[in-house]
Description:
- The structure holds 2 protein chains of 2 kinds.
- By secondary structure, chain A is α/β, with parallel strands linked by helices.
- Chain A is built from 14 helices and 15 strands.
- In chain A, the strands form 4 sheets. In chain A, strands 13-12-11-14-15 form a 5-stranded parallel sheet, sandwiched between helices.
- Helices cover 15% and strands 26% of the residues of chain B.
Amino acid sequence: MELTAEQQxxxxxxxxxxxxxxxxxxxxxxxxxxxxRMIPVSSVQIAGVSFDNLGVAGLQFLTEMAQGGGKxxxxxxxxxxxxxxxxxxxxxxxxxxxxxQQRVIEAFASMGVVTTCTCTPYLxxxxxxxxxxxxxxxxxxxxxxxxxxxxxxxxxxxxxALAAALTGCTPAYGMHLEGERLxxxxxxVDADILMxxxxxxxxxxHVFGAxxxxxxxxxxxxxxxRVPFIRGIPGASLEALKSFCASLATYGGVALFHMQDVxxxxxxxxxxxxTIEITQAEIEAxxxxxxxxxxTNVDFVSLGCPHLSIREIARIAELLxxxxxxxxxxxxxxxxxxxxxxxxGYTQIIEASGAKFAVDTCCVVAPIKGxxxxxxxxxxxxxxxxxxxxxxxxxxxxxxxxxLEAL
Amino acid sequence: MKLEGRKIAGGNARGEAxxxxxGVSFFGGVDPETGVVVERGHDLYGQSIAGRVLVFPTGxxxxxxxxxxxxxxxxxxxPAAIVNSxxxxxxxxxxIIAEIxxxxxxxxxxxxxxxxxxxxxxxxxxxxxNVGPT
Lengths: 407, 134
């Protein structure tokens, strides 16, 4: 790889041990993917924040990087942690876990990372613009940044995202190259369910999650990596798109899609001739497949995968006003979004019902394996991890019905 | 015999080769404390990778595997070096953060378990010193 003089200086160790190791990681990745050079990035999102995923080794590595003088050179934010950093005790997190999780956050903070812990950095002050080169981990946010915003990022892992933060660059391959962003397969959707509003699914998070699962699994079954071009969608809310991105990334490893009349790069391209048709039956089949473990009584209700927008929290407050929940109900969101909810009085209404905010964390990364039997959610992504990681059965329902399930 | 590949993570090592025909997942596939392969059905199942020059086609599995390599190193049970046909990101990142020499683009079918080998990762070279058991 060709390095600039400054990048070579980093590699030689003159900016300290942590920056050297960071540059070694990026050069190795550049070698594997045949990158010719590094490209400057202006925003980073780091995954691998929950102590439940990092373990002792991950914490040791982050501590070593912090002690080695690592400092973020660009705006850098964090993925959800394994607990609410303030209110962990009420959510049943042990003091031992809380201590280790705090050490992880402290290591990041000492490296100059902004410790908002969220999978929706674009709702919490880390919002790149069209065409901007960035290095993001968190698969749903990568898909959102590339597709909905039109920024350029590969699907980074925890260490490679940290390396980009400490050096301000990333190897130029994959999604950073225009030629890799061309659509290669068309999905043509013709389903009434997407054409009309659904009073139980106010922002269409449920139906778009199901659509994302179907397309993601179809792409996984095809050889090679494809960039899908999706047509036939009448429009999509921010919430629908964040749900769709989470689902596509979980079930199909998708970094980028184009959606006609919705995403910014779609107009540059004609739909590829290779076309797959999707009807209502396919979307209903995807919905059913996430519900086939039903039949058990739901004892855990969770909304906020990806983290809730302020609009979604407002809707929960509207539905819970004056009512009492009878099940453990977690509402997961970013701390800045929660602060808006505080200001608007939504928090008070929701907490008066007995539902709990779980800020900075989510049902995917918190250490709750085996704690519940069956979870109700509107998120196709949450269903995947509830089943695979936490051994819960899943009940996949439209947003409003999930809230009502808690009553 | 000298085999030439490319550097992934620098350094030098010498040791007994342990060759796998299957890909290796460090997260869930290798005990992070002892270095014993615990993936059922794996051709190295039950064997320890500690201190060996570990030779396998490519990495697989969870990205958390990078941290497992780091943990193995801290526990003193990491491989002396890793040699791949095609290195992927989990192994590459793990070798760099754990400071384990790593090279790839090596024709690994020319190496046998039990042979004494040395790895000069900075030059991307692997040398086989004797012929293993036949």
